[in-house]
């Protein structure tokens, strides 16, 4: 299942939803509840479900072949769905006020990695009312980049889009080292095999100016999407393949923090966004867990 989580309201200094469940009897009164703390029992049940998945992992051979050429699966995904699958990430400004270029006195340069067909790229360009931003957008799926560039919203005077596997050295189309104000990662680091993450983060950090920020939104550990996986999906701890062969990893926030620090980033924010989604007709409760983080390349 893929969908577009949207953050609304305030949660500490990070904007998320503000509909809080104070009385359990009201749970089916609304479709969603924000900032839902987990109790020990929920945590235990989630761990048990993940333990059970370990008894039905993918075969070693299948796991190896899925990890070999991950771009092929995403390319087939976009050949099949083009721009009809993901919704535009219209919550971006609420979670990342850094994207409000009106607050900046100078021009800005940003890179969106794993841009797909532009569901983050185009909202970012829409936010840039004064046209102060130049945006680089890249994806390792040639089909995704082709669809993005074919959109009537694509404006080559404000944005460039190119094919790049961010686990590999930057191609000539990439921005030069130390030139970016922002790197934006929306549901992309979870698509990378964990053993390639360190190298990827080093590369992204090298493109940021000192003081530049990496903005990240991704799946959190024990999100409903993780717990729902049945047999023949688990490749390695917290790393799964979907039915179409695309990869997804579910980060723990402390682990993400460690990985970012190891790559030389400094924390600005790292928040777990927990939301209870309710199917009122079926009386079913589903827990969503997302991570939102901002890390800086030190000055
Ligand atoms: C869940 S989609 C998110 C797309 C987009 N960020 C958005 O907001 O809709 C993940 C994207 O990451 C891309 N991706 C995964 N691994 C990548 C890699 N190593 N290098 C570049 N792009 C990658 C996929 O092709 C896919 O478009």
TrEMBL record:
Its EC number is 2.1.1.-. Gene3D superfamilies: Vaccinia Virus protein VP39. GO terms for cellular component: cytoplasm; nucleus. SUPFAM superfamilies: S-adenosyl-L-methionine-dependent methyltransferases. It is an enzyme of class 2 (transferase). Residues 1-13 have a biased composition (Basic and acidic residues). Residues 1-21 are annotated as: Disordered. InterPro entries: METTL2/6/8-like, SAM-dependent_MTases_sf. The keyword Methyltransferase applies. It catalyses: cytidine(32) in tRNA(Ser) + S-adenosyl-L-methionine = N(3)-methylcytidine(32) in tRNA(Ser) + S-adenosyl-L-homocysteine + H(+). The keyword Cytoplasm applies. Keywords: Cytoplasm, Methyltransferase, Nucleus, Transferase, tRNA processing. Pfam families: Methyltransf_23. It is found in: Cytoplasm; Nucleus. One of its GO terms (molecular function) is tRNA (cytidine-3-)-methyltransferase activity. S-adenosyl-L-methionine-dependent methyltransferase that mediates N(3)-methylcytidine modification of residue 32 of the tRNA anticodon loop of tRNA(Ser), including tRNA(Ser)(UGA) and tRNA(Ser)(GCU). Interaction with SARS1/SerRS is required for N(3)-methylcytidine methylation. Belongs to the methyltransferase superfamily. METL family. Monomer. Interacts with SARS1/SerRS; interaction is mediated via tRNA(Ser) and is required for N(3)-methylcytidine methylation. This is tRNA N(3)-methylcytidine methyltransferase.
């Amino acid at each position: 299942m893929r969908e577009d989580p949207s953050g609304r309201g305030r949660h500490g200094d990070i904007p998320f939803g503000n509909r809080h469940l104070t009385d359990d009897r009201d749970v089916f009164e609304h479709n969603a509840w924000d900032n839902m703390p987990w109790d020990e029992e929920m945590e235990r049940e989630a761990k048990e479900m993940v333990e059970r998945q370990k008894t039905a992992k993918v075969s070693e051979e299948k796991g190896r072949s899925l990890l070999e050429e991950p771009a092929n699966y995403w390319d087939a995904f976009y050949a099949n769905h083009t721009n009809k699958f993901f919704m535009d990430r219209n919550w971006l400004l609420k979670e990342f006020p850094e994207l409000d270029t009106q607050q900046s006195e100078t021009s800005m340069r940003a890179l969106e990695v794993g841009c797909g067909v532009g569901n983050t790229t185009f909202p970012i360009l829409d936010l840039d009312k004064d046209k102060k931003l130049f945006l680089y957008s890249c994806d390792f799926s040639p089909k995704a980049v082709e669809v993005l560039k074919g959109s009537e919203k694509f404006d080559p005077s404000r944005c460039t889009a190119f094919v790049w596997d961010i686990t590999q050295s930057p191609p000539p189309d990439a921005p030069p080292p130390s030139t970016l104000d922002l790197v934006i990662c929306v549901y992309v680091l979870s698509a990378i095999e964990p053993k390639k993450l360190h190298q990827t983060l080093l590369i992204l950090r090298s493109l940021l100016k000192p003081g530049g920020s990496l903005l990240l939104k991704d799946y959190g550990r024990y999100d409903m999407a993780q717990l729902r996986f049945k047999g023949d999906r688990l490749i390695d701890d917290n790393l799964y393949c979907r039915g179409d062969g695309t990869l997804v990893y579910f980060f723990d926030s402390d682990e993400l923090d460690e990985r970012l620090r190891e790559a030389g980033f400094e924390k600005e924010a790292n928040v777990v966004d927990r939301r209870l989604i309710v199917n009122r007709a079926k009386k079913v409760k589903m827990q969503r867990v997302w991570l939102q983080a901002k890390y800086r390349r030190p000055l």
